Amino acid sequence: MMLAATQTINVGLRHVPTWVVYAAGALPPVWLVYLGLTGGLGVEPIKTFEHLLGELALQMMIVTLAVTPLKRFAGIGLIKFRRAFGLLTFYYVTCHLLVWLFLDVGILSQIWADIVKRPHITFGMWAFVLLTPLAATSTNAAIRKMGPKRWKRLHQLGYAAAILGAVHYIMVAKTWQLEPLIYLGIIILLLLARIQVPKRA
Q1: Which end of the chain has a smaller Cβ tally under 10 Å, C or N?
Q2: CA neighbours closer than 13 Å in the CB half-sphere of residue 193
Q3: Residue 153: what pLDDT?
Q4: Which DSSP string do the residues of 123-170 spell out, in sequence order?
């Protein structure tokens, strides 16, 4: 029964073009802009916009990290979408950063002071820095040029970026709220699920 369901899911996934994932993933920030312009983001639209983009980034990061465990433990094949998920994560993180830079702070000297002096901003910026080379090398040409082993080692920076992003969210909350802790817990579980246990001879 479970095997049949998995096979059905995989057959359906094989018929979904990758561009559909990119197109669907590109829409949420656009929708949030529309809500902001029409008063749909509440009394503090910039803060809400910034917060929701950050949540989107963490959610897509979780989806990206879940690809390998889903294949290993459930047999669900999302591998062909992993690059799209990763690039959409970077897209959301970049949008989140741009809203903070230009709509929230907007003063260059204040931006640098916040990055240096406010730990949650520091953690968030480090997550962005780690994700940048991953997005820049998310092409077949980059894999060929670097070689699969070097490319894979570089892209393991995404694990650290995920942890930093979750810690950033916890620190932004300033109090021990449940939702940010759940994000961190899920990310840690997904990272642990990627560990290969050596088989006994």
Answers
A1: C
A2: 17
A3: 94
A4: HHHHHHHHHHHHHHT-SHHHHHHH-HHHHHHHHTHHHHHHHHHHHHHH
